[in-house]
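Lecture notes, unit on binding sites. The following record was shown on slide 14. It pairs a sequence with nicotinamide-adenine-dinucleotide.
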Amino acid sequence: MEKEGEMQPVYLITGGAGNLACQLTFPLAARGIRCVLLDVAAEPVAPVAEGCQYVRGDVTNAEDMKTVFRDYEPRVVVHFASLLSAASEADRPAAWELNANGAFALLEMALAHRVDRFFFPSSLAAYGGALPDLISDHQVQWPDGMYGVTKTTVERLGVYYARRHGLDFRGLRLPIVVSRYAHLGAASSYASRAFMETAQSGKFVFQVRPESRPALIYTRDVIDAVVLLLEAPAAKLRQCVYNIQALSPTAEELAAAIRTHYPDASLTFQTDERIADLIDSWPRRFDDSAARKDWNWKSTYDLAAMAADFATTLATA
Ligand SMILES: NC(=O)c1ccc[n+]([C@@H]2O[C@H](COP(=O)([O-])OP(=O)(O)OC[C@H]3O[C@@H](n4cnc5c(N)ncnc54)[C@H](O)[C@@H]3O)[C@@H](O)[C@H]2O)c1
């Protein structure tokens, strides 16, 4: 592999073909950062910024990882590669291998190469059991699903590497991301699918309950949050992993916001108890006061702003 632009700082983004990775390349490239996108997929799911390097590779393959570190010498690792919730439940060994063992190997590699920073996206699924309406950063984490178990595991590993070995590990527990590039197989993609199917066919059937209201976040807010946290001075950060809050509409309120842009659409409910129970077991609202205080987090997209932006994006796609 050829080395180019050696003066630019290099960020290695695993899961580099995915939803969040592709979108993150734009603000990073605008800051003069060179993104190396590593993924097992043949190609990215979405456009990426000019100047990115796409590398086909597997996080769980030690040779692939050695090669990418040797060839690109990344200063920052953004570790997005993961099986998501449904896939993790369907194949527990594969989930543990990628989400837990893969992260462990990458943390070791990051430490050996003395990277400046390691970013990890945890999830609202890192919480489970009986939960209060408002989740603080100090809420005990007893995840119910395999995906959440692996997310909590990596949070703990990251804090270990930070405290014991001085690795600058930073993480966010993300609410459900609403995005036109969302993995549509996931139960949690209902909000994204509601927009996309309504725009495409004029109808959508929600499988959650009208009153279901897990914490959501618009994809543009996620990207802003990742960049803000990556850029925050280490001295300002009082913890490694932060909860962030954006919006918590009921599915009925979400349907109403979508209808504002598609007045003739049919948005109805046929609750699937299994899916609804899973969604309703996740946090509804996060107390994100630490994120606001330490690195100036503030959500820009409320429900109306998200609906307007999503509808405009789909209309111009
Ligand atoms: N989208 C959400 O709602 C949400 C919420 C909370 C946390 N997260 C986390 O954010 C991260 C990114 O999510 P996303 O929405 O972009 O998911 P995504 O599914 O679009 O991207 C994940 C990528 O990882 C890749 N991948 C799978 N196995 C790999 C391997 N062995 N080696 C390298 N790459 C591999 C996939 O091909 C895919 O492109 C994930 O860690 C996810 O758990 C997402």
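Take-home: The CA atoms of residues 136 and 287 lie 5 Å apart.
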